[in-house]
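WARN retry 2 of 3 for item q-0093 after timeout on previous attempt; input resubmitted unchanged.
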Amino acid sequence: MTLLSVRNLTVTLMTGSGPADAVRNLSFDIERGQILGIAGESGSGKTMTALSVMGLLPYKGKASGSINFDGQELVGFKPRDFRRIRGKDVAMIFQDPMTSLHPMLTIETQLTEHLRHHRKVSKSEARARALELLDTVKIPDPKTALKAHPSQFSGGMRQRIAIAMALACQPKLLIADEPTTALDVTVQAGILKLLDELRKSQNLSVIVITHDLGVLSALTDRIMIMYAGAEVESGLTSQVLTRPRHPYTRGLIDALPDSGADGKRLIAIDGMPPELGKFPSGCAFHPRCSFARSECKTGVPNKVDIDGSRRIFCSVDPFDTSDSSAGASR
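OK item q-0093 returned
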C-alpha cells in the first residue's frame, strides 16, 4: 500500500537573482515498509525534496504539485498543520546529530519533552518510553545515558540517539538525510543494520538521502538518482546499481573506488553540476555527457519505461542492450 505519493513536485527558492527551481517536476512513490534511496551529487535536490515533505523549506521557499501522505495532501499545508504531523507521523534524522540535539539539555529532557508534546503522556510514562527507545537503538546503560548530555557521546551514539528521538512517536515515515556521514565504516554498518531492523519490526517506511551508493546498495529496496533537481533514473536498487541505463548513473558507479584495483586511476565525471538557477536547456546533464546529441541540448529528455519496474529520462539511452521489441517503451 502506498504511504507517500509525490507527483510533479517543484520546489522554488528565492536567490539573489530571483526565484529558481531546486526540484523540478519530480514524481515518486514509497510503499509501507519500503526503503527508498535518493542519490545524487550536492545540489541535486535531494534534501529539498525531503524538506518539502517535512514542511521545512527555507524562507520564501514554495512547493507546488502534489505530496500525498497517508491520504493527506501536504502541498498547501499551513505551518500549524505541519507541526501536527511533523515528529509524530513523519520524522527526520538530520545529517549532523550535534545540530539536531540540544547541547545544553540532557537526553532525558529532549526525549520526554518531545513525547509529552505529541503523545500527552505523564512524566513517568514519557521516561519509561525514553528508556525503551534507547534500548531499542542499542544505547548501553539507558538509565545512565538519559542523564547525560550529547557531548558525552561518540558520533555513532549521538546518531543512535537522534534515531531514537525520530522514532519516539512511532512515525509512519522516517527520512534519513546522510545518516552515516562522518561515521567510520564499523559504526556505519551498525546504523544501517539498525535502520533495517526498525523497518522490519515496525513496518516503517524510510527515505534515505545520500551521495554514497554503497549505503544504498546495503539498505534500500528502490533507488532514485537525481541531477539538477530532477530524476534521471529509478528502479529496484539491484537493477540500477548493476545495470545502470542513464549516463549519469553510470558515471556515478564508475567513479566508485575499487579496493581490488591497486594503482588504478579513479574515473571522474567531467565538469561540475550546474548552479541553482543556471540549469542548461534541454537535458541538464548534456554539458557533461559524452553521449549527448544535438536534441539533448534543446528537447526535454524522453521518459523511458523499462519492464514496468524502472525508468530513465534520456533521449539517447546509450546502454540499452535489449531487443527493440522486448523491454523498453518510450
